[in-house]
Write a structure and sequence with these properties.
With about 280 residues, the protein is mainly alpha-helical. It folds into 2 domains: about 90 residues, no CATH class; about 130 residues, no CATH class. Helices cover about 70% and strands about 0% of the residues. The chain is built from 10 helices and no strands. The longest helix is centred in the middle third of the chain and has 38 residues. It is flat and about 80 Å long. It starts with 9 loop residues before the first helix and ends in a 15-residue tail after the last helix.
């Protein structure tokens, strides 16, 4: 059997053996964990020098009696809170390294067109998450605290602990960060041909109802505040997703028509030549 007739092995064909994949995955996980540990250590040092807890408690301070601070009922809670915040800071610091390791492992398995999509999608997702988290912390949380604490009367006095406050804050921030990923998720589903622009338009009324329910749950308050702060932006994201879905489908149809040698949608027919 000649060399040309022999079947190519994984090394010759450019494919990595399965055990080599596992070895690469192991080292990338180790590098990601090492970056996370260093980030947590850096976060702990930062928390000992910067009053991050004081910054996070700014929304609740106007609702506390003068001179009163958040209370805690367990001697170990301040230490646990410091560890949790150190982990969050460490995760933020190590996230570029972790994302790079994930990208380096998945990149060989992606087509060139898919590689061009991944980075913009990740950046847009990060921007949307930060925007949703900022809206929750700076706008929604103060309004929610004002409404919730407005139910106390002369017979009731607020006993606000740090554990309960940070639990509410974390829930709101993460929920809004996740909700702001809606247009990105819908566009990816359209790109993968799982749903279409017609599907989004057909279920617009259903989404309005779901949007209203989610807005009411996440933002306790009157209907005007709920609509202005939460429901309207989410609905605008949905409408933007429909527009982007139409653009993707129109571009896809033009590419398919060009591949078939036919004029795409909106293309003018060629003028007839001289007889």
């Amino acid at each position: 059997m000649t060399d040309a007739a022999r079947p190519k092995g994984p090394e010759q064909s450019g494919e990595m053996p399965f055990l080599d994949h596992l070895e690469e995955l192991r080292w990338r996980i180790i590098k990601g964990l090492a970056a996370l540990i260093l980030g947590v250590a850096a976060g702990y040092v930062l928390l000992t020098r910067v009053d991050v807890v004081g910054f996070l408690t700014q929304p609740i301070l106007p609702f506390l009696p003068v001179g009163q601070r958040l209370l805690f009922t367990s001697p170990i809670y301040p230490f646990l809170l410091t560890l949790k915040l150190s982990f969050v800071v460490g995760l933020l610091v190590a996230s570029p390294v972790i994302v790079f390791q994930v990208w380096g492992f998945l990149r060989p398995a992606l087509y060139r067109a898919e590689r061009r999509v991944v980075v913009p999608v990740a950046l847009v997702g990060l921007v949307l998450f930060v925007a949703g988290a900022a809206l929750a912390f700076y706008v929604v949380l103060p309004i929610a605290l004002k409404v919730l604490l407005g139910f106390q009367s002369q017979s009731l006095a607020a006993f606000i602990t740090a554990d309960e406050y940070f639990g509410l804050t974390t829930t709101l921030v993460l929920s809004f960060g996740a909700i702001f990923q809606l247009p990105l998720v819908l566009i990816l589903l359209v790109y993968l041909r799982i749903i279409s622009a017609a599907f989004l338009r057909r279920h617009r009324r259903t989404f309005v109802i779901i949007n209203a329910i989610l807005s009411a749950v996440l933002t306790p308050g009157d209907i005007v505040v709920m609509t202005a702060i939460v429901m309207v932006p989410i609905q605008l994201f949905y409408e933007l997703s429909i527009i982007l879905a139409l653009m993707i489908e129109h571009r896809r149809a033009r590419a398919a028509a060009a591949a078939a040698g036919e004029p795409g949608p909106g293309a003018s027919a060629p003028a007839p030549g001289p007889a």
